[in-house]
Amino acid sequence: MPVTRADVEYVAKLARLGLTEEEKERLLDDLNSILDMADQLGELDTEDVEPTHHVQVINNVFREDEVRPSLPKEEVLANAPEEQNGMFKVPRIVGEQEN
Amino acid sequence: MLELHEMTAARLRHLLDTGQISAVELTKAILERIDAVEDSVQAYITVRREEALKEAARADEMIRRGESQPLTGIPVAVKDNICVRGTRTTCGSRILADFVPPYDATVIGKLNEQGAVIIGKANMDEFAMGSSTETSAFKVTRNPWDLSRVPGGSSGGSGAAVAADEAVIALGSDTGGSVRLPASYCGVVGMKPTYGLISRYGLVAFASSLDQIGILSKTVADCADTLTAIAGHDRRDSTSLDVPVSDYREYLGKNLRGMRAGIPKEYFELRVSDEVKSLVEKAIDVFADCGVEIVDVSLPLTKYALACYYLIATAEASSNLARYDGVRYGYRSEEAPDTLTMFQKTRDEGFGAEAKRRILLGTYALSTGYYDQYYLKALKVRTLLKESFIKAFEDCDFMIAPTTPRTAFRIGERIDDPVEMYAADTYTVTANLAGVPALSIPCGFGSQGLPVGLQLMGPHLGEGQLLQAAYAFEQQAGVAEKRPALEVS
Prior knowledge:
The complex is a heterodimer. By secondary structure, chain A is mainly alpha-helical. Helix content of chain A is 34%, strand content 4%. Chain A is flat, with a radius of gyration of 22 Å. At the A-B interface, helix 1 and helix 2 of A face helix 9, helix 10, helix 11, helix 12 and helix 13 of B.
């Protein structure tokens, strides 16, 4: 089933990618070629097959709930594009844009 | 007589430990080599001149105190998706162009413990997504054997650095072949371990169930020493295997009599060029001469592996790359009026075309209505593929196959055709999907003087027998005397 332009726009919105019109065109073609390749998997009978999420089964890797040293705040903020009062500063959350 | 920069870690260890050279001298020699050829090769994003010399001085202290270990004082190039504290780590992306990690990856900690010297951060395809190192936001690395050609990817900088003697050893990462493919194209040894053997803590994630840090080196022995140094359980990586780490040196030099090598027929039918096939078949004869029993095996799902891989890897990538939003680190688009616009513009401006392609494909494969058809289907195919490997290993101790269908292609040749580009990964994605170890070792040169790699694949935690087999092959076939003819500037 071919990918449509509407699909690209929907998926771009989910992925928070602001694409130009030109990018949407190109990506539409690319996605369709790649998914043509992916359709091959339909040839295989996987009716009673369990999915593999991870190659080795490791369960519940836990540790004791003890406080351990972690990064000092200045280091955490060192790469921040904008910070204020020891917090990451971002533009207003609720904006002009209709969601 | 070899120059210092041409030598292996094993040889340098001897010279360092007997006081014939100092670690500082060695690091200076490598830095001089970088100055001489880097304009042509472009292997590095960042060279750590000052820091490397400090590390070399520290290594000299360790050697003086009689505390040297296999990698003490050895210059190592590190792929730029492995965090080195205090050094710009970009992942080949504009979105992390100025990111300076506040911590070292576990493998870097282990290299530091041994007193290794981290010479620089190697160029790579953006976020490890690529097979040619052409999607790096910063530069295109050139294959030292032919500067008009790609070094392979995504660890192309690592492969080129070792091939051009700009590092003695390099670390890379391998999600679908990104260590083995550049190793093959650049004529060096490249190894991907069993999933979970080397900690991923500090490796910037691309596809979490497939990623592994890997090793590129001039010889099998250097690869074995590096694996011993950096493998091992890590509490900070919950996918890390809690198994004892061998001294992999112990496997080298053991003879191969009684071992069985499986030849998976599908790897000799699908897309492989005649010259690659012919060189690999000659290599199989070398193994037979070593006393190995050659057995035919089948991996019937090989032709579905690329599709399976690209669905799983992109789905995982779409999730892993969601963190790049301009909030806490990395690039942030200017003058966005609200956070949603900021996210969209930051990501549109910060990511390159291939990263966007993969994020979109992955998001699509996971989205409502398509999840079952694409992502879940791929996970089921992965099960079948993994089982086919387990079955094949019932009849053999390791498998021999080409690493990649052809030799290095020209820069620009495939960049506009994603499916054609992905085809380079045909034989490498399988080991990542199955979680098994695999290594590429040079086995000759094609008609245009370009290196060809031979791939050995082993069962889960079969690194020992892989290194044993690779070493015997290397000894029997001879480590290539040829070096790339690089003009020194």
